[in-house]
Write a structure and sequence with these properties.
Number of helices of chain A: 11
Helix content of chain A: over 70%
CATH topology of the largest domain in chain B: Rossmann fold
Structural class of chain B: alpha/beta
Strand order of the largest sheet of chain A: 1-2
CATH architecture of chain A: Orthogonal Bundle
Largest interface: A-B, 41 and 43 residues
Distance between the termini of chain A: 42 Å
Shape of chain B: elongated
Largest sheet of chain B: 7 strands, mixed
Strand content of chain B: 15-25%
Number of helices of chain B: 14
Number of strands of chain B: 12
Order of helices and strands of chain B: HEHEHEHEEHEHEHEHEHHEHHHHEE
Number of strands of chain A: 2
Order of helices and strands of chain A: HHHHEEHHHHHHH
Distance between the termini of chain B: 91 Å
Helix content of chain B: 40-55%
Number of domains of chain B: 2
Number of domains of chain A: 1
Oligomer: heterodimer
Strand order of the largest sheet of chain B: 7-6-8-9-10-11-12
Radius of gyration of chain A: 19 Å
Structural class of chain A: mainly alpha
C-alpha cells in the first residue's frame, strides 16, 4: 500500500473523526453527569443543522455567523426539555437514581416527535447550503487536498473539547457539574442546586451540537433524517472513548474516523465499518468503561 | 335475557359486514388505489413527487367523471409511508390490503423495499404497479400480480453503455477503462451486476468496482482510490444525499474523469439534488433516466401537469412525478376494460394492457404493454448531459434536439 495514499487516508480519517468526537461530546457529558442516555442526540444535531440552513436560506446569513443564533437557541431548547419533560421523571425517583429504561424511552420519544415535527415543517427534501468558500480546498502536493470547510469543522471540534475541559476544571459552574457527576447526594448536601446543574448540562450538550451544526452545514447536507447516522456513531464513540470523558470522546471519534478511512482503502467501505464495530466490541470486553472513561 | 339477545344481534351484525363489503357489484362508488412510497427517510423527496403525480392524475380522472365503466366510480388514493424500510413497507401494504381494502397498489421507489412489499401483494392476490424500482428480480420471480411500466435494471445498464458506444463512434474518441461506484443495497448492486455482465460485449476494462453504505458522511477515501485507479469514465448509482456529497467532493478533489461521470439516476433525477449542489459539480455529468427531461419542450400537453406539480412541490415535472401520474392512468385504462372492481379481473385487464397514446405515456415511452413476467417491453430511458446548467438529451440520437453540440470527452478540471 502506497504510504502516501495511506497517509492521505489517515488525514481524512482524522478530520472526520474529530467531528464524530465533537458530536459525541454532548452525549458523553449528559450521560456522565445525569446518567441519561439521550436517544434524541442525533435529532438535536439535525436541528443544529437546520438553524444555520434556514438563516442562510432566508437571510443570507453566513452559517459561521449563525453560531450566535444556533448555540443559544439549542441551549434553551435543551434546558427547556430537561427542566420540563425529563426532570419530572427524576422527581419520581427517590434518590434521583433513574431506572435506565424509562429515561431512554423518554428521550427516544422526544427524538421521534422532533424528527417528525421537522419533517412536517420542512418537508422531506434534502437541502444543502451553497457557499463558494466551502468548496475551496488546500492542496498539499499533488494528491492530498483538504477541504477548508472540513478543516474548520475539525479545528472547531478540538476548540470545543479544549474549551469544555477548561470550563469544567476551572469555573465554579464547571466544578458544580463535575461534583454532581461524581456523587449527586454529596453535591446536593454541599448546597449545589442539582436540578439547575442538570438543566444546564443538558442545555450545554445541545448547544455544542448547535455550534457543530453551523460548521458542518457548508460541506454536509441537511434533511430531517440526517441525525440518524450521526446518532449511532455518537454512541459507538462515547462507549469507545469512555463515558463522561471529554478527551475520551475525541479519541474515540478519531479512532472511528481513522479506522473507517484506512480500512476503506483495503476493503469496501461497507466492510470497513465492521472494523469499527470489532474494535468497539473488543473495548467493551476488555475495558468496559471505555478507553479513558471514569470508573462508574 | 334482553342483554343476551342484544349481544347476539350485535355479533350477527358484525359478521354480516364483511359479506356486505364483498359484494362489490358492478355499480361501485369508489376505487381505492394504495400509494406505498417513502414519505420519510431516504428518498422522501421522491416519494412526495410520486404521490403528487398520482394525486394530479386521480384529480383529473375524478373531475372528468370518474371511471365510466363503473358508473362514474371515483378514485381514492390511500397513502402508506414505507420510511424507506422493507419491513415497514410490507406492513403498510398489508394494512392497505386488509384494512383499507384497496383494489390495487402502486409503489415504492427503492428496489430493496419494493421487492419485499410486492411479496405481500402477491400473497393477497392484489395487483401492484411498480414505481421506479428497476431491480431485475422484481419481475423475475414468476409472480402474477406485479406489473412494471418502467425500466428493468438491465435496460438502464444497457442504455448507459449504448450511449457511451454511440458517442464514441460519432466522435471517434472512446474510453478504455470504466469504474463502477454504487450504493450497496438492492438497486446499486443490481445495476453493477448488469454493467459487469454487459461490459463483455463492449470491450471496456473494469478497473474500479465498489459499493458504499448509503448515508456515508465522507467519500474522500473512495475518491482517493478512484484517482489511483484512473478510470476513463465512472458509472455511479446513488441516492440523493450521497449524490450531493459525492459530487461536491468530486469537484473539490478535482477528480478527472476524461469521459465523464455517468449517473444512472435516482439522486441525479431529483430536483433537490440540483438545488443543493453547486453548478460546477454537476457540469457535463451524464444522467440516465426513465424519462426525457426536456419532454415539456417536445410534448407541450405535459406542461399542464408540470404546472400543477410546480404548485405543490415547487419544481417542474420530473421522472418521478411522471411515473406517479402514468401509473394511475394505466390503472384507469385497465379498470375501464375490466369494468369491474374485482382484483382478479383487474389483474387480467392489466396483463392485457396495450397503451399506445394518451396521458399514460407522459413518461416518454411509445407503448405500455406487459409481457408474461409483468415487464413493460417498450420502456426505455434517455441519457442527458448537463450543459450550461441545462440537462439536454444526447441519446438516443433521435431524441436529441437539432444541432446539439454535446461535450465528449469532457475538459479536465484545470481547463474549466
Amino acid at each position: 500500500m502506497d504510504p502516501i495514499i495511506l497517509g492521505i487516508a489517515v488525514v481524512n480519517g482524522i478530520l472526520l473523526g474529530g467531528l464524530y468526537g465533537a458530536v459525541a461530546l454532548g452525549l458523553s457529558l449528559i450521560f456522565g453527569v445525569m446518567r441519561v442516555i439521550n436517544f434524541a442526540h442525533g435529532t438535536f444535531l439535525m436541528i443544529g443543522l437546520f438553524i444555520p440552513f434556514w438563516t442562510w436560506q432566508l437571510f443570507g446569513l453566513n452559517p459561521y455567523v449563525a453560531v450566535v443564533i444556533a448555540a443559544p437557541a439549542l441551549f434553551l431548547l435543551g434546558y427547556a426539555i430537561q427542566s420540563v419533560i425529563i426532570a419530572p421523571l427524576f422527581e419520581r425517583e427517590r434518590a434521583m437514581v433513574l431506572e435506565p429504561l424509562s429515561v431512554l424511552l423518554l428521550t427516544a420519544g422526544i427524538g421521534l416527535i422532533l424528527d417528525n415535527l421537522a419533517l412536517m415543517a420542512f418537508g422531506p427534501s434534502v437541502r444543502g447550503v451553497q457557499m463558494p468558500f466551502a468548496s475551496k480546498t488546500l492542496w498539499i502536493g499533488e494528491m492530498l487536498n483538504i477541504n477548508y470547510a472540513r478543516l474548520m469543522a475539525f479545528l472547531v471540534s478540538i476548540a470545543i473539547a479544549v474549551g469544555l475541559t477548561l470550563f469544567l476544571s476551572r469555573s465554579d459552574l464547571g466544578r458544580s457539574i463535575r461534583s454532581t457527576a461524581q456523587n449527586r447526594d454529596a453535591a446536593a448536601l454541599c448546597g449545589i442546586n442539582v436540578r439547575q446543574v442538570y438543566n444546564i448540562t443538558f442545555g450545554l450538550g445541545c448547544a455544542i451540537l448547535g455550534v457543530i451544526g453551523c460548521f458542518m452545514v457548508p460541506f454536509y447536507y441537511v434533511s430531517p433524517t440526517v441525525g440518524l447516522s450521526f446518532g449511532i456513531r455518537s454512541f459507538i464513540t462515547v462507549v469507545l472513548g469512555g463515558i463522561g470523558s471529554i478527551p475520551g470522546s475525541i479519541l474515540g471519534g478519531l479512532i472511528l474516523g481513522v479506522v473507517e478511512s484506512v480500512a476503506g482503502q483495503f476493503v469496501t467501505a461497507t466492510s470497513a465499518s465492521i472494523f469499527s464495530f470489532v474494535i468497539f466490541i473488543l473495548v467493551l470486553l476488555f475495558r468496559p468503561t471505555g478507553l479513558m472513561g471514569m470508573k462508574v | 335475557m334482553m342483554k343476551r339477545v342484544f349481544l347476539i344481534a350485535i355479533i350477527l351484525g358484525l359478521l354480516a359486514v364483511p359479506f356486505g363489503m364483498a359484494q362489490a357489484g358492478e355499480k361501485v362508488d369508489e376505487i381505492r388505489i394504495g400509494v406505498v412510497v417513502p414519505l420519510s427517510g431516504i428518498g422522501a423527496t421522491v416519494g412526495a413527487q410520486m404521490k403528487t403525480g398520482a394525486t394530479i392524475a386521480a384529480d383529473e380522472i375524478n373531475n372528468q367523471g370518474g371511471i365510466k365503466a363503473l358508473g362514474g366510480a371515483k378514485l381514492k388514493l390511500v397513502i402508506g409511508d414505507t420510511q424507506a424500510k422493507p419491513d415497514v413497507a410490507a406492513s403498510e401494504a398489508e394494512r392497505l390490503i386488509q384494512r383499507d381494502n384497496v383494489q390495487v397498489i402502486i409503489g415504492s421507489y427503492q428496489s430493496a423495499v419494493t421487492i419485499v412489499a410486492t411479496e405481500v401483494a402477491e400473497r393477497y392476490k392484489t395487483p401492484w404497479v411498480v414505481l421506479a424500482s428497476v431491480a431485475d428480480r422484481i419481475t423475475g420471480r414468476g409472480f402474477k400480480y406485479i406489473f412494471r411500466p418502467c425500466n428493468l435494471a438491465v435496460y438502464d445498464a444497457k442504455e448507459q453503455l449504448e450511449a457511451i458506444k454511440a458517442l464514441s463512434q460519432e466522435t471517434g474518441k472512446a474510453p478504455k477503462t470504466i469504474g463502477l461506484f454504487v450504493e450497496g443495497t438492492e438497486w446499486g448492486k443490481s445495476h453493477a451486476q448488469n454493467v459487469r455482465t454487459l461490459l463483455k460485449n463492449y470491450g471496456y476494462d473494469l478497473v474500479f468496482d465498489e459499493a458504499y453504505t448509503p448515508g456515508q458522511a465522507d467519500f474522500s477515501a473512495q475518491i482517493l482510490k478512484i484517482r489511483s485507479k484512473k478510470p476513463d469514465l465512472l458509472i455511479v448509482a446513488m441516492f440523493t444525499p450521497d449524490h450531493i456529497l459525492f459530487n461536491k467532493q468530486y469537484m473539490e478533489n478535482k477528480l478527472d474523469l476524461p469521459f465523464g461521470l455517468h449517473s444512472v439516476g435516482s439522486g441525479a433525477e431529483d430536483p433537490a439534488f440540483y438545488a443543493a449542489t453547486p453548478p460546477k459539480a454537476v457540469e457535463y455529468m451524464f444522467v440516465q433516466e426513465d424519462f426525457q427531461i426536456d419532454i415539456t419542450d417536445v410534448q407541450p400537453w405535459t406542461q399542464g401537469v408540470s404546472k400543477k406539480a410546480k404548485e405543490v412541490l415547487g419544481y417542474d415535472l420530473n421522472a418521478y412525478v411522471a411515473q406517479g401520474y402514468s401509473n394511475v392512468y394505466i390503472i384507469v385504462d385497465a379498470l375501464e376494460r375490466a369494468a369491474s372492481a374485482d382484483k382478479e379481473k383487474l389483474r387480467e385487464a392489466l396483463a392485457k394492457t396495450n397503451i399506445t397514446s394518451g396521458p399514460a405515456l407522459i413518461t416518454g415511452y411509445n407503448k405500455i404493454a406487459f409481457d408474461a413476467t409483468g415487464q413493460n417491453v417498450d420502456s426505455h430511458g434517455a441519457i442527458s448531459q448537463n450543459l450550461n446548467g441545462k440537462r439536454t438529451t444526447v441519446w438516443p440520437a433521435s431524441n436529441r434536439p437539432q444541432g446539439l453540440k454535446y461535450v465528449w470527452p469532457i475538459p479536465a478540471w484545470k481547463d474549466r
